[in-house]
Structure formats: C-alpha cells, structure tokens
Amino acid sequence: MNCHDLDFNISRLGRCRIPSPLSGVRFVRNDERVLYPSDASAIEACVAEGKPLPAFEAAGPREQIYFDPSKLKCGIVTCGGLCPGLNDVIRAIVLSLFHHYGVATVFGFRYGYEGLTHRHGHRPLELTPRAVADLHQKGGTLLGSSRGPQDVSEMVDTLERMNVGILFAIGGDGTLRGAQAVTEEIGRRNLKIAVIGIPKTIDNDISNVQNSFGFETAVSEARTAVYSANAEAEGARNGIGLVKLMGRESGFIAAYASLAHSEVNFCLVPEVPFTLDGLLAALKRRIESRGHAVIVVAEGAGQDLVERPRETDASGNVRLGDIGIFLRDMIPARLKNLGMDVTLKYIDPSYTIRSMPANAHDSVFCLLLGHHAVHAGMTGRTNMLVGFWKNEFTHVPIPLAAFERKRIDPEGRLWSNVLASTGQPKEMM
Ligand SMILES: Nc1ncnc2c1ncn2[C@@H]1O[C@H](COP(=O)(O)OP(=O)(O)OP(=O)(O)O)[C@@H](O)[C@H]1O
Ligand SMILES: O=P(O)(O)OC[C@H]1O[C@](O)(CO)[C@@H](O)[C@@H]1O
C-alpha cells in the first residue's frame, strides 16, 4: 500500500446541518490529523516529493452533527468470534447515544448479520441504559453472534423498514467487509444511513489499527496458562509445557504472552516457518541442558506440517489443522526415538480466554471506542471504523482495514525481542 492511500477523506452522508446538543460531551475536536506512518524515511520521502504527509482523521465529538437525535434510531450488531470487551462496547454505544446526544431508541440485532434478515426470525432487543447497566461485567456478547453469509439487500430492507439511521457493526475483517457491502447497498438506494465499524479481533490483526480491544485481556489470560505450563514443566523430569493460543494468521497473542513470561523457550507463530526436525533438535538440547522447556504455539503456526481439513467455516474462513494436538503427539514420540523420554502437558485455553470479561484497561479502551463510534456516526460519517494509532483514536476507512491482515514483522522490533528472550527460532529451520 502506498502511504498516500492513507491521506483520505472519510465518507460522509452530507453536510452537517443540525447544531449538536452535545449535552454530556465536554470538548469538541476540530478535524485534526494523526500522522501515519511513524517511519521517518517514509515521512522524509513525502517531504522531499512535496506531498502531504499521510494521516488519519482524529476521532472525537464535533461541533455539528448530521442526525436529529430526537428522531434518530440506531442499531448494533456483533458478528464473528467472541472477544473480551464486546459487551463493554455495546454498553458504551448505548450510554453515549443516550447521555451525550439524547438518542432513546437503540436496537440490538441478534446473532450477527442473521438478525438483520427476516428469514431467521430473530427479534431485536431494545437496548436502554437500564438494559445495559451491568453488561460490562460479563464476557461474551448480549446480542449473540454468528458466521455465514446473509442477503445484503435484505439487511438494508430491515434498516430501512425500522428507520435505522446509524448501524454500529462490531466485528472482525469479515464483519467490516459486510459493513462495506451494506454501505454500498445503502448508497445505491440513496438512503441516509451511516455504518460505523468497531474492529473486534482477539488476534489483533486489523490493518492500520495499532491495538484492538480484548487483546490485552487475552494476553494476560494467556500468561496464566503459560505460568501453569511452566510449573508443570518444572515439576517433571524432562518436563515440557505446551500451550496453544489463538492466532490464525498473526501470532501476536503468542508473541506477547511469551514476552510477558520470559520462561517461554519456543514461541511458534504463523509468520515464521519451522521444521519439526529443527524444533526437536533445539528442544532436545534445551532439555539436556536445563531439564525442562515451555513451548507456546499460535494456532496458525506450522500449517505445512499438519493435515488440513480442506474445509472453510460458514463465513469462508479456511479451517486450520490442529498444530497443538500434532505437537502434543509428535514431540514425545519423536524424542523417544532420539533416546529421550519426556513428560508433556498440553494446555489449550483458547475459548476460555476469548470468553472472559475485559480487564480494566480493555474496559476503558472499549468505553472510549464506543464513545468515538457514536461521535463519528452522529456526524454522518460512514463506511469507516474507529481505530487507534499512536495513542489517538482515529477514523479509518473500511477498505484500509478489512482487506489485508496485520502480521508480526519477523525482522521488526517485537520479533527481535522474542528472539532475544527465546534464543531459538532461527536455528529451527
Ligand atoms: N464481503 C462480505 N459481504 C457481506 N458479508 C460479509 C462479507 N464478508 C464477511 N461477511 C459476513 O460477516 C460476518 C462475520 O464474518 P466472519 O465470520 O469472517 O467473522 P469476522 O468478523 O472476521 O470475525 P473473526 O475475527 O472472529 O473471524 C459473517 O456473517 C460473514 O458472512
Ligand atoms: O471457533 P470459532 O468460533 O469459529 O473461532 C475461531 C477463530 O476465531 C478467532 O478467534 C478470530 O476471532 C481466531 O483466532 C480463531 O481461529
């Protein structure tokens, strides 16, 4: 992607026309920009060529809004896998709409995009401040979620019939592509409906978004599993603790959990290929010298080593082979052939982690994401998501976020840290 692609104008429904009551909003932000990228050479190149520096629009409340709060109805939908903080975001949107702007009608569409079609018969929930009061204390999503294609035209029919002015779509790259398809259909019908995305991915793999909500909770829960794996490994002769964590194409949870617990000896991520022989040789050396080892593997790592189901899930995401089970079975068997008996304990906390309530930091993050989503929607912005970049909340056009995954740069600073703490991956090839 050319860095100038980021110097954009966010889509808007039209000119702002209604003075905002901004009852509870303390400050109003002008159209500031958050520079991208932080890479000095890219910035120097822009300056040398006389081009404007690429930037995201800063998020925040504006002096004028597009919708009339007294007539506005909004909808919220959650799609894809669970993630800590989903309920916090739902609650933040409802409370911001109500308290900051005086919007009283918010529908919660049930079970993902299914709830926007009529054929599944899911009736929307009415989300009042009272209905969401304690929501942030629970994991999961009040609304339910789903995968699988839905008829976009039918979804827009529902929005039109229910007179929804802003749809908030909370989900991963699939959900965001769906939100874009909905926006395009809205445009074809010339309707005044805004669609705002809030990126949800436990894998932290949305492009042009520095951090996504739930990731920090996931890392801290993953660290608990790594502690247990380490205790099990140290408690046995030739003990190995093996932990599998989520991360289909991006190994951020595995990498950060490894950094958070520097006892991890091998961190295997999708971005860095390895061979079984290389891993076994390094593992054997480690156990010979220290008597135990801890391995963290992301679910998408080593896919060339395992049998893959040749299937997709309902949304078309490729199903992965189970690298955790493969290593659990292969490591003791192959090390035995090499003359070493080991005791391996396997921990897969994936679903436990992603269904947790958000930790304190993620709760704050979700609250602010929800508020910024409401501010953006109220001004008539559309086909965008609320991002986070250089510690600023930003407006990111959906096409810049949903079509290419963010992945670990193996040569980058994070990965250098992983190398420094494990000292292993390069010799495992
Ligand atoms: N191009 C698209 N047009 C319309 N709907 C889409 C499109 N791409 C994905 N969707 C829909 O978006 C929903 C969520 O997609 P998906 O199941 O891939 O989860 P996700 O949002 O990527 O979250 P996760 O990160 O948990 O996988 C599904 O109902 C899927 O059918
Ligand atoms: O089992 P499910 O619900 O389809 O979700 C699994 C996937 O969802 C993710 O958590 C992304 O949200 C991936 O890491 C994982 O592969």
Could you walk me through the main structural features you see in this protein, from its secondary elements to its overall organization?
- Pathway: Carbohydrate degradation; glycolysis; D-glyceraldehyde 3-phosphate and glycerone phosphate from D-glucose: step 3/4.
- This is ATP-dependent 6-phosphofructokinase.
- Homodimer.
- Its EC number is 2.7.1.11.
- GO terms for molecular function: 6-phosphofructokinase activity; ATP binding; diphosphate-fructose-6-phosphate 1-phosphotransferase activity; metal ion binding.
- The protein has 429 residues and is α/β, with parallel strands linked by helices.
- It has 2 domains: 250 residues, Rossmann fold (3-Layer(aba) Sandwich), CATH 3.40.50.450; 149 residues, 3-Layer(aba) Sandwich (Rossmann fold).
- Helices cover 34% and strands 16% of the residues.
- The protein has 11 helices and 15 strands.
- The protein has a 9-stranded mixed β-sheet, sandwiched between helices. Strands 11-12-10-13 form a 4-stranded parallel β-sheet, with helices on both faces.
- A hairpin with a 2-residue loop joins strand 14 and strand 15.
- The longest helix has 20 residues.
- The relative contact order is 0.17.
- The N terminus and C terminus are likely disordered.
- The site of 6-O-phosphono-beta-D-fructofuranose has 12 residues, from loops.
- 6-O-phosphono-beta-D-fructofuranose binds next to loops.
Main sheet makeup: 9 strands, mixed
**How many structural domains does the protein architecture include?**
2
Distance between the termini: 30 Å
CATH topology of the largest domain: Rossmann fold
Q: Kindly name the structural category.
A: alpha/beta
Uncertain segments are 1-5, 415-427
Side-by-side strand order of the widest sheet: 2-3-15-14-9-8-5-6-7
Binding site for Mg(2+): 173
Active site: 203 (proton acceptor)
Binding site for substrate: 201-203, 246-248, 299, 351-354
Binding site for ATP: 81, 147-148, 172-175
